[in-house]
Amino acid sequence: MTMHECRDRARMLGSYLDGELEAAKLLDIDEHLGSCETCREEVQLLRATRGSLRRVVRASAPSSLRDRIGSAMAAERAREELRADGGGAALEARLFGGGPGSWRTLVPVATAAAIALIWGAAARGTPASMNESLAGFGDDLLAELVAEHSQPLPPEAKNAKEVRGLEQYVGFPVQPGSFERGGARLVGGRVVPLRSQRSLMLQYVVGTGDDARRFSVLVYDAQKIQVTANLAPRAVGTAEVRVGREKGYSVAAAQRAGVGYLLASDLDPDKNAQLAAMVYDDR
Amino acid sequence: MSFTSEAPKADPFVDEALTHMDALYGVACKLTRNPTEAEDLVQDSFVKAMRARSQFHAGTNLKAWLFRILTNTFINKYRRGGLERSVLDGPDADPLADGWVSASTMRQLRDPETLALMPLVEDEIRHALDALPAEFRLAVVLSDVEEFSYEEIATIMGCPIGTVMSRLHRGRKLLQRTLYNHALALGIVKGEERVGPAQDAEGAKTADLAEYRARKRGTV
Hints:
The complex is a heterodimer of chains A (283) and B (220).
Chain A: H1 3-17, H2 23-35, H3 37-57, H4 63-84, H5 88-97, H6 106-122, E1 135-137, H7 139-150, H8 160-165, H9 167-170, E2 184-194, E3 197-206, E4 213-221, E5 225-227, E6 232-236, E7 239-246, E8 249-256, E9 259-265, H10 269-277
Chain B: H1 12-19, H2 21-32, H3 35-51, H4 62-78, H5 85-89, H6 103-108, H7 119-131, H8 134-145, H9 150-157, H10 161-185, H11 209-216
Helix pairs in contact in B: 2-3, 2-4, 3-4, 4-9, 7-10, 8-10, 9-10
């Protein structure tokens, strides 16, 4: 058996073991293995490695995780039902209506708690001691964002490369291309001071001609600045963003890898939320 | 709407999804290499699955669907640049040859009694797996541990089947090479002349990772 014959078949030995070979190749390998000790040994090594991998990887989830996920899924389902029931009005009726169904008033409360937990989990990694120094991103800053959006200062950086260059001033990764995948065009960006942190204000245009709309994105260090404004969670596909209104503008917040994104535009809230969800999209 | 029919436990989707939690957690541990992050990743994945459950077609493979969500969540949350970046930044960005080790050497990696890997070598497999670039590690774990078909892995990882095969082959080869080097260092096996592609009379091409990336992008 020459090495050449083995080389041609070496790539197939894994597929052979995985049961993924078509019949003709399977027979060929079977026959080859009957006469080639090296390849036979290779298959046995692959099989032994597989057994070891299983022992190394298989794990039992801690029971605390099981409980946590059970509650989170229940809360998620409750939220869906609430939405299906007509949302706020139904909630109010339940909260104040009493009667045999009043236990369900607890459901939205549990749901809200679960959502806060999930949102909080994204920002985890921040030591508890740092929480005191966290800058709150309340309604006043939402107003500031909208003011920046409605009366934008001229951008310092006017293309993606220059905007990425601002990374050194803000200390977190800047990827202005995230929104361009959603059909938006980058106009530019500038560094803005917010609560003694440097953040980034990006300006984009989406749509063309009379349909062209501006939107602004505040990019900030989510480990240092937290959104405390009252924004409602909204699912976009499998992503979660938070949405709200400020002085007639649509506002949406998303957070990824420790970086926060806050969008303001005069687009309808759905479109605005979809744009915010682009930060989760790599495909 | 009657709430008696909606008791929290009576949801087949949730019940079935939860049966896969251990598998998802095991793989999440290997992806994140951190049990706390693994817990967060699994929880995020379950919540997303719950939210997107209308997109799941009953009767299709729920486990594969959950793993797909897990994989996407991992990429989105922990790897801004996606999985591919790890090939460049990974610990094994040096040229990789298929390597050719004699049958007798490979046999020495195994325990003659159990035909499994020797305990000393098996210890190393944990480290070797952690050291693999994430996309190879995930392919190997999905195939060898979770026993997904190539087609299912392609769906989970969002890549063509050919890429799955390539990642599996290269991932397993990298594991073997690490185990071999470890066994060599421990003196379990004796060093032998490795026939690499450079000396290969057949003129096989050096399969380095940069070339692999370029080929994948269709620029070669």
